Amino acid sequence: MKISKEQALTLAFTFLAFILGTTEYVIVGLLDQVAAGLGVSIAEAGAFVSGFAVAYACGTPFAMALAGRFSKPASLMTGTVLVVLLNICSAFASTYVLLLVFRIMTAVCCGLCVSLSISISTDVVPIEKRGRAISYIMGGFSLANVLGVPIGTFVGMHFEWPAAFILVGILGAFCLVLLYRVVPRDLPNAQSRMSDQFRLLTHPRVLLAILIPVLGVAAIFVNYTYIVPLMTEVMRIPADRTGYVLIVYGAATIFSNIISGVIASGNYMAKLKVLFLIQAVIFAIYGITVSVPWLGILGLIAIACISFSINAAVPIYFIHLAERFVPAAKDFASSLMPIGANIGIAVGSASGALVMGHFGLRFLPWAAVGFALVSCCVTALSLSLDEGKGRSRTRDASL
After folding, report:
1. Cα–Cα 20 to 30 A to 124, which of 84, 163, 219, 392?
2. Helix crossing, 194-201 with 204-224: angle to 10°?
3. Cα dist from 325 to 44, 328, 329, whole Å
Protein backbone atom coordinates (compact mmCIF):
# COMPACT_ATOMS: atom_id res chain seq x y z
CA MET A 1 0.00 0.00 0.00
CA LYS A 2 1.38 3.36 -1.06
CA ILE A 3 1.53 5.98 1.68
CA SER A 4 1.12 9.72 1.16
CA LYS A 5 3.81 12.32 1.79
CA GLU A 6 1.94 13.42 4.92
CA GLN A 7 1.90 9.86 6.27
CA ALA A 8 5.60 9.37 5.47
CA LEU A 9 6.42 12.59 7.27
CA THR A 10 4.37 11.56 10.31
CA LEU A 11 6.10 8.17 10.42
CA ALA A 12 9.53 9.80 10.18
CA PHE A 13 8.70 12.19 13.02
CA THR A 14 7.34 9.30 15.07
CA PHE A 15 10.66 7.50 14.63
CA LEU A 16 12.48 10.69 15.60
CA ALA A 17 10.31 11.00 18.72
CA PHE A 18 11.19 7.39 19.52
CA ILE A 19 14.91 8.25 19.33
CA LEU A 20 14.47 11.40 21.41
CA GLY A 21 12.29 9.61 23.96
CA THR A 22 14.79 6.80 24.30
CA THR A 23 17.58 9.36 24.67
CA GLU A 24 15.73 10.99 27.54
CA TYR A 25 14.22 7.99 29.33
CA VAL A 26 16.76 5.18 28.85
CA ILE A 27 18.78 6.35 31.83
CA VAL A 28 15.80 5.64 34.11
CA GLY A 29 16.27 1.90 33.64
CA LEU A 30 20.03 2.24 34.15
CA LEU A 31 20.02 4.58 37.13
CA ASP A 32 21.51 1.98 39.47
CA GLN A 33 24.27 1.03 37.02
CA VAL A 34 25.15 4.63 36.15
CA ALA A 35 25.25 5.61 39.83
CA ALA A 36 27.51 2.67 40.66
CA GLY A 37 29.74 3.23 37.63
CA LEU A 38 30.31 6.91 38.45
CA GLY A 39 30.47 6.43 42.21
CA VAL A 40 27.42 8.52 43.17
CA SER A 41 24.16 7.83 44.99
CA ILE A 42 20.88 7.04 43.23
CA ALA A 43 19.47 10.38 44.38
CA GLU A 44 22.47 12.18 42.82
CA ALA A 45 22.07 10.14 39.64
CA GLY A 46 18.48 11.34 39.53
CA ALA A 47 19.94 14.69 38.44
CA PHE A 48 20.58 13.11 35.03
CA VAL A 49 16.79 12.99 34.68
CA SER A 50 15.86 16.28 36.35
CA GLY A 51 18.87 18.13 34.87
CA PHE A 52 17.93 16.95 31.38
CA ALA A 53 14.38 18.17 31.91
CA VAL A 54 15.41 21.59 33.26
CA ALA A 55 17.86 22.11 30.39
CA TYR A 56 15.15 21.07 27.93
CA ALA A 57 12.70 23.59 29.33
CA CYS A 58 15.15 26.48 29.68
CA GLY A 59 17.17 25.88 26.52
CA THR A 60 14.41 25.18 23.98
CA PRO A 61 13.21 28.82 23.68
CA PHE A 62 16.74 29.99 22.86
CA ALA A 63 17.29 27.10 20.45
CA MET A 64 14.02 27.94 18.67
CA ALA A 65 14.98 31.61 18.44
CA LEU A 66 18.31 30.64 16.88
CA ALA A 67 16.52 28.25 14.50
CA GLY A 68 14.42 31.17 13.29
CA ARG A 69 17.43 32.36 11.29
CA PHE A 70 17.44 29.19 9.22
CA SER A 71 14.90 27.01 7.41
CA LYS A 72 13.00 24.50 9.50
CA PRO A 73 14.42 21.45 7.63
CA ALA A 74 18.02 22.66 8.08
CA SER A 75 17.47 23.33 11.79
CA LEU A 76 15.82 19.94 12.28
CA MET A 77 18.64 18.07 10.55
CA THR A 78 21.29 19.97 12.53
CA GLY A 79 19.52 19.23 15.81
CA THR A 80 19.26 15.53 14.96
CA VAL A 81 22.96 15.32 14.07
CA LEU A 82 23.85 16.88 17.42
CA VAL A 83 21.60 14.41 19.28
CA VAL A 84 23.43 11.51 17.61
CA LEU A 85 26.89 12.92 18.39
CA LEU A 86 26.03 13.79 21.99
CA ASN A 87 24.69 10.30 22.66
CA ILE A 88 28.03 8.91 21.52
CA CYS A 89 29.87 11.42 23.70
CA SER A 90 27.70 10.43 26.69
CA ALA A 91 28.82 6.83 26.25
CA PHE A 92 32.43 7.89 26.80
CA ALA A 93 31.79 10.25 29.72
CA SER A 94 34.04 9.14 32.56
CA THR A 95 32.85 11.49 35.32
CA TYR A 96 29.55 12.56 36.84
CA VAL A 97 29.99 16.21 35.80
CA LEU A 98 30.95 15.36 32.22
CA LEU A 99 27.94 13.11 31.72
CA LEU A 100 25.67 15.76 33.23
CA VAL A 101 27.06 18.37 30.80
CA PHE A 102 26.45 16.07 27.82
CA ARG A 103 22.92 15.34 29.06
CA ILE A 104 22.19 19.07 29.35
CA MET A 105 23.44 19.74 25.81
CA THR A 106 21.46 16.79 24.47
CA ALA A 107 18.31 18.05 26.17
CA VAL A 108 18.42 21.39 24.34
CA CYS A 109 18.85 19.62 21.00
CA CYS A 110 15.97 17.25 21.79
CA GLY A 111 13.73 20.20 22.65
CA LEU A 112 14.56 21.84 19.33
CA CYS A 113 13.84 18.66 17.34
CA VAL A 114 10.50 17.92 19.02
CA SER A 115 9.32 21.52 18.63
CA LEU A 116 10.27 21.67 14.95
CA SER A 117 8.61 18.30 14.29
CA ILE A 118 5.30 19.54 15.69
CA SER A 119 5.67 22.88 13.90
CA ILE A 120 6.41 21.26 10.53
CA SER A 121 3.45 18.92 11.00
CA THR A 122 1.10 21.84 11.55
CA ASP A 123 2.47 23.38 8.34
CA VAL A 124 2.02 20.26 6.22
CA VAL A 125 -0.87 18.28 7.71
CA PRO A 126 -4.45 19.57 7.16
CA ILE A 127 -6.04 21.06 10.27
CA GLU A 128 -8.64 18.29 10.57
CA LYS A 129 -5.85 15.68 10.78
CA ARG A 130 -3.49 17.54 13.11
CA GLY A 131 -4.72 15.96 16.34
CA ARG A 132 -4.19 12.45 15.04
CA ALA A 133 -0.81 13.31 13.46
CA ILE A 134 0.47 14.87 16.68
CA SER A 135 -0.80 11.90 18.70
CA TYR A 136 1.16 9.58 16.39
CA ILE A 137 4.31 11.69 16.67
CA MET A 138 4.08 11.88 20.45
CA GLY A 139 3.35 8.17 20.33
CA GLY A 140 7.02 7.79 19.49
CA PHE A 141 7.67 8.52 23.15
CA SER A 142 5.35 5.64 24.03
CA LEU A 143 7.36 3.40 21.71
CA ALA A 144 10.48 4.59 23.50
CA ASN A 145 9.01 3.11 26.68
CA VAL A 146 7.87 -0.06 24.90
CA LEU A 147 11.13 -0.78 23.08
CA GLY A 148 13.78 1.84 23.73
CA VAL A 149 13.95 1.81 27.52
CA PRO A 150 13.67 -2.00 27.98
CA ILE A 151 16.16 -2.70 25.19
CA GLY A 152 18.49 0.01 26.45
CA THR A 153 18.20 -1.40 29.97
CA PHE A 154 18.98 -4.91 28.70
CA VAL A 155 21.97 -3.71 26.69
CA GLY A 156 23.22 -1.58 29.57
CA MET A 157 22.97 -4.44 32.06
CA HIS A 158 24.76 -6.95 29.82
CA PHE A 159 27.33 -4.72 28.09
CA GLU A 160 27.70 -1.88 30.65
CA TRP A 161 25.58 1.28 30.60
CA PRO A 162 27.57 3.23 27.92
CA ALA A 163 26.49 0.65 25.31
CA ALA A 164 22.89 1.89 25.61
CA PHE A 165 23.91 5.39 24.50
CA ILE A 166 25.92 4.02 21.59
CA LEU A 167 22.89 2.01 20.44
CA VAL A 168 20.69 5.14 20.56
CA GLY A 169 23.29 7.03 18.54
CA ILE A 170 23.31 4.36 15.83
CA LEU A 171 19.51 4.37 15.61
CA GLY A 172 19.60 8.15 15.43
CA ALA A 173 21.88 7.97 12.40
CA PHE A 174 19.28 5.83 10.59
CA CYS A 175 16.58 8.34 11.52
CA LEU A 176 18.70 11.14 10.10
CA VAL A 177 18.73 9.45 6.69
CA LEU A 178 14.96 9.00 6.79
CA LEU A 179 14.37 12.64 7.68
CA TYR A 180 16.59 13.78 4.82
CA ARG A 181 14.41 11.85 2.39
CA VAL A 182 10.93 12.85 3.54
CA VAL A 183 11.07 16.35 5.08
CA PRO A 184 10.01 19.00 2.50
CA ARG A 185 12.72 21.50 1.59
CA ASP A 186 10.45 24.44 0.78
CA LEU A 187 9.29 25.22 4.31
CA PRO A 188 9.61 28.74 5.77
CA ASN A 189 11.91 29.71 8.60
CA ALA A 190 10.58 29.21 12.12
CA GLN A 191 8.74 32.35 13.26
CA SER A 192 10.15 32.47 16.74
CA ARG A 193 11.62 35.82 17.78
CA MET A 194 12.52 36.15 21.44
CA SER A 195 10.20 39.16 21.81
CA ASP A 196 7.22 37.11 20.55
CA GLN A 197 8.20 34.21 22.79
CA PHE A 198 8.36 36.54 25.78
CA ARG A 199 4.92 37.98 25.01
CA LEU A 200 3.44 34.49 24.76
CA LEU A 201 5.19 33.13 27.85
CA THR A 202 4.12 36.09 29.98
CA HIS A 203 0.46 36.01 28.96
CA PRO A 204 -1.58 34.99 32.04
CA ARG A 205 -3.68 32.45 30.14
CA VAL A 206 -0.59 30.75 28.73
CA LEU A 207 1.15 30.72 32.11
CA LEU A 208 -1.91 29.01 33.57
CA ALA A 209 -2.04 26.50 30.69
CA ILE A 210 1.63 25.57 31.11
CA LEU A 211 0.78 24.26 34.57
CA ILE A 212 -1.35 21.54 32.95
CA PRO A 213 1.57 19.56 31.43
CA VAL A 214 3.90 20.53 34.29
CA LEU A 215 1.67 19.05 36.98
CA GLY A 216 0.26 16.24 34.84
CA VAL A 217 3.70 14.96 33.86
CA ALA A 218 5.07 15.47 37.39
CA ALA A 219 2.36 13.09 38.61
CA ILE A 220 3.78 10.39 36.32
CA PHE A 221 7.48 11.02 36.86
CA VAL A 222 7.44 11.33 40.62
CA ASN A 223 7.05 7.52 40.38
CA TYR A 224 8.56 6.66 37.00
CA THR A 225 12.00 8.18 37.75
CA TYR A 226 12.41 5.73 40.61
CA ILE A 227 10.45 2.83 39.14
CA VAL A 228 13.37 0.37 39.39
CA PRO A 229 14.03 0.99 43.12
CA LEU A 230 10.25 0.88 43.68
CA MET A 231 10.07 -2.53 42.05
CA THR A 232 13.08 -4.03 43.81
CA GLU A 233 12.73 -2.52 47.29
CA VAL A 234 8.98 -2.03 47.79
CA MET A 235 7.30 -4.45 45.37
CA ARG A 236 10.05 -7.03 46.05
CA ILE A 237 10.53 -7.93 42.38
CA PRO A 238 13.92 -9.58 41.64
CA ALA A 239 16.34 -7.22 39.87
CA ASP A 240 16.68 -9.55 36.88
CA ARG A 241 12.88 -9.37 36.34
CA THR A 242 12.55 -5.58 36.31
CA GLY A 243 13.35 -5.43 32.58
CA TYR A 244 10.33 -7.60 31.82
CA VAL A 245 8.08 -5.35 33.89
CA LEU A 246 9.43 -2.31 32.03
CA ILE A 247 8.54 -3.98 28.73
CA VAL A 248 4.96 -4.57 29.93
CA TYR A 249 4.80 -1.00 31.24
CA GLY A 250 6.04 0.34 27.91
CA ALA A 251 3.56 -1.76 25.96
CA ALA A 252 0.71 -0.39 28.08
CA THR A 253 1.72 3.18 27.23
CA ILE A 254 0.65 2.50 23.63
CA PHE A 255 -2.92 2.47 24.90
CA SER A 256 -2.35 5.91 26.41
CA ASN A 257 -1.42 7.17 22.94
CA ILE A 258 -4.75 5.87 21.60
CA ILE A 259 -6.53 7.70 24.42
CA SER A 260 -4.53 10.80 23.53
CA GLY A 261 -5.95 10.88 20.01
CA VAL A 262 -9.50 10.42 21.33
CA ILE A 263 -9.11 13.20 23.89
CA ALA A 264 -7.74 15.63 21.28
CA SER A 265 -11.07 15.71 19.43
CA GLY A 266 -14.11 17.72 20.47
CA ASN A 267 -14.11 19.40 23.89
CA TYR A 268 -10.67 18.14 24.85
CA MET A 269 -10.29 20.37 27.92
CA ALA A 270 -13.36 18.84 29.57
CA LYS A 271 -11.96 15.39 28.81
CA LEU A 272 -8.58 16.32 30.31
CA LYS A 273 -10.28 17.39 33.55
CA VAL A 274 -11.89 13.96 33.90
CA LEU A 275 -8.64 12.25 32.94
CA PHE A 276 -6.75 13.85 35.83
CA LEU A 277 -9.43 12.73 38.29
CA ILE A 278 -9.08 9.16 37.00
CA GLN A 279 -5.32 9.49 37.28
CA ALA A 280 -5.59 10.50 40.95
CA VAL A 281 -7.78 7.48 41.73
CA ILE A 282 -5.35 5.10 40.00
CA PHE A 283 -2.38 6.46 41.93
CA ALA A 284 -4.29 6.21 45.21
CA ILE A 285 -5.09 2.54 44.54
CA TYR A 286 -1.45 1.93 43.55
CA GLY A 287 -0.30 3.57 46.78
CA ILE A 288 -2.47 1.19 48.80
CA THR A 289 -1.41 -1.96 46.94
CA VAL A 290 2.23 -1.18 46.04
CA SER A 291 3.72 -3.59 48.59
CA VAL A 292 1.83 -6.53 47.03
CA PRO A 293 3.91 -7.53 43.96
CA TRP A 294 1.15 -8.59 41.55
CA LEU A 295 -1.26 -5.85 42.58
CA GLY A 296 1.59 -3.36 42.31
CA ILE A 297 2.35 -4.53 38.76
CA LEU A 298 -1.31 -4.12 37.83
CA GLY A 299 -1.16 -0.61 39.27
CA LEU A 300 1.89 0.22 37.16
CA ILE A 301 0.10 -1.04 34.04
CA ALA A 302 -2.91 1.15 34.84
CA ILE A 303 -0.62 4.14 35.29
CA ALA A 304 1.07 3.38 31.97
CA CYS A 305 -2.30 3.27 30.21
CA ILE A 306 -2.85 6.96 30.94
CA SER A 307 0.76 8.19 31.08
CA PHE A 308 0.81 9.92 27.66
CA SER A 309 -2.89 10.71 27.36
CA ILE A 310 -2.40 14.50 27.41
CA ASN A 311 0.20 14.55 24.62
CA ALA A 312 -2.06 15.45 21.68
CA ALA A 313 -4.66 17.74 23.26
CA VAL A 314 -2.27 20.03 25.13
CA PRO A 315 -0.10 21.02 22.09
CA ILE A 316 -3.27 21.85 20.15
CA TYR A 317 -4.47 23.95 23.08
CA PHE A 318 -1.19 25.91 23.15
CA ILE A 319 -1.37 26.56 19.41
CA HIS A 320 -4.99 27.67 19.86
CA LEU A 321 -3.96 30.10 22.62
CA ALA A 322 -1.10 31.46 20.49
CA GLU A 323 -3.42 32.03 17.52
CA ARG A 324 -5.76 33.96 19.81
CA PHE A 325 -3.25 36.06 21.79
CA VAL A 326 0.16 36.14 20.01
CA PRO A 327 -0.17 34.80 16.42
CA ALA A 328 3.48 35.58 15.61
CA ALA A 329 4.55 33.03 18.26
CA LYS A 330 2.57 30.14 16.80
CA ASP A 331 5.72 28.13 15.93
CA PHE A 332 7.08 28.60 19.42
CA ALA A 333 3.73 27.53 20.87
CA SER A 334 4.38 24.06 19.47
CA SER A 335 7.31 23.77 21.88
CA LEU A 336 5.33 24.64 25.01
CA MET A 337 4.02 21.11 25.53
CA PRO A 338 7.48 19.50 25.57
CA ILE A 339 8.81 22.42 27.61
CA GLY A 340 6.02 22.07 30.15
CA ALA A 341 6.37 18.29 30.14
CA ASN A 342 10.09 18.49 30.88
CA ILE A 343 9.55 20.98 33.67
CA GLY A 344 7.09 18.40 34.95
CA ILE A 345 9.73 15.69 34.68
CA ALA A 346 12.15 17.86 36.66
CA VAL A 347 9.53 18.70 39.28
CA GLY A 348 8.42 15.08 39.51
CA SER A 349 11.89 13.57 39.77
CA ALA A 350 13.09 16.22 42.25
CA SER A 351 9.92 15.83 44.34
CA GLY A 352 10.39 12.08 44.23
CA ALA A 353 13.91 12.45 45.59
CA LEU A 354 12.61 14.60 48.47
CA VAL A 355 9.77 12.21 49.28
CA MET A 356 12.10 9.22 49.03
CA GLY A 357 14.66 10.87 51.32
CA HIS A 358 12.21 12.01 54.00
CA PHE A 359 9.42 9.43 53.93
CA GLY A 360 10.53 6.46 51.83
CA LEU A 361 9.81 4.98 48.42
CA ARG A 362 6.34 3.70 49.29
CA PHE A 363 5.03 7.28 49.67
CA LEU A 364 5.81 8.26 46.05
CA PRO A 365 2.33 7.29 44.73
CA TRP A 366 0.68 9.67 47.21
CA ALA A 367 2.77 12.56 45.93
CA ALA A 368 1.43 11.66 42.47
CA VAL A 369 -2.15 11.84 43.77
CA GLY A 370 -1.52 15.42 44.87
CA PHE A 371 -0.08 16.44 41.52
CA ALA A 372 -3.00 14.86 39.63
CA LEU A 373 -5.63 16.63 41.74
CA VAL A 374 -3.98 20.03 41.28
CA SER A 375 -3.75 19.33 37.52
CA CYS A 376 -7.50 18.73 37.49
CA CYS A 377 -8.14 22.06 39.23
CA VAL A 378 -5.90 24.00 36.81
CA THR A 379 -7.57 22.37 33.79
CA ALA A 380 -11.02 23.16 35.19
CA LEU A 381 -10.01 26.81 35.67
CA SER A 382 -8.66 27.08 32.10
CA LEU A 383 -11.85 25.50 30.75
CA SER A 384 -13.96 27.91 32.77
CA LEU A 385 -12.04 30.90 31.38
CA ASP A 386 -12.44 29.58 27.82
CA GLU A 387 -16.17 29.09 28.26
CA GLY A 388 -16.51 32.53 29.79
CA LYS A 389 -14.74 34.09 26.79
CA GLY A 390 -17.02 32.16 24.45
CA ARG A 391 -20.15 33.38 26.23
CA SER A 392 -18.80 36.94 26.08
CA ARG A 393 -18.31 36.74 22.30
CA THR A 394 -21.82 35.32 21.91
CA ARG A 395 -23.35 38.23 23.86
CA ASP A 396 -21.38 40.77 21.82
CA ALA A 397 -22.56 39.20 18.57
CA SER A 398 -26.18 39.34 19.69
CA LEU A 399 -26.07 43.08 20.47
Report:
1. 84
2. 80
3. 41, 9, 9
pLDDT at 380: 92
| Secondary structure (DSSP) of 114-183 | HHHHHHHHHHHS-GGGHHHHHHHHHHHHHHIIIIIHHHHHHHHHHH-THHHHHHHHHHHHHHHHHHHHHS
Phi, psi of 71 (to 5 degrees): -70, 155
The per-residue pLDDT for range 293-338, each reduced to its tens digit, is 888 889 888 988 888 788 878 888 888 888 888 887 777 787 788 7
Query: What is the second-level CATH architecture of the domain 5-398?
Result: Up-down Bundle (1.20)
Q: CA–CA separation, 386 vs 160, rounded Å? A: 51
Q: Which long-range contacts (CB under 8 A, 24 or more apart) does 172-175 make?
A: 172/19, 172/23, 172/80, 172/83, 172/84, 172/87, 173/84, 175/12, 175/15, 175/16, 175/19, 175/80
Asked whether residue 112 carries a pLDDT value surpassing 80, the answer given is yes
Q: Whole-model pTM?
A: 0.74
Residues contacting residue 201 through CB under 8 Å, at least 6 positions apart: 61, 207
Q: Using an 8 Å Cβ cutoff, are 169 and 88 in contact?
A: yes
pLDDT in tens, 76-99: 899 999 999 999 988 888 888 888
Alpha-carbon separation of residue 324 from 68, 116, 149, 206, 312 (angstroms): 21, 21, 38, 11, 19
Of 63, 128, 143, 53, residue with least CA distance to 316: 128
Question: What is the model's pLDDT at position 212?
Answer: 93
For residue 71, give the H/E element and its range.
none
Residue among 168, 163, 61, 141 at smallest CA distance from 108: 61
d(CA 378, CA 123): 30
Q: Where are the domains of the chain?
A: 5-398
User: How far apart are the C-alpha atoms of 173 and 342, rounded to whole Å?
Assistant: 24
- What is the per-residue pLDDT across 148-170, written as a single tens digit (0 to 9) for each? 777 787 787 778 888 888 988 99
* All residues at 6 or more sequence positions from 58 whose CB lies less than 8 Å from its CB, including other chains: none
Q: Give the sign of the dihedral formed by CA 143, CA 150, CA 342, CA 19.
A: negative
- What is the reported pLDDT for 1? 54
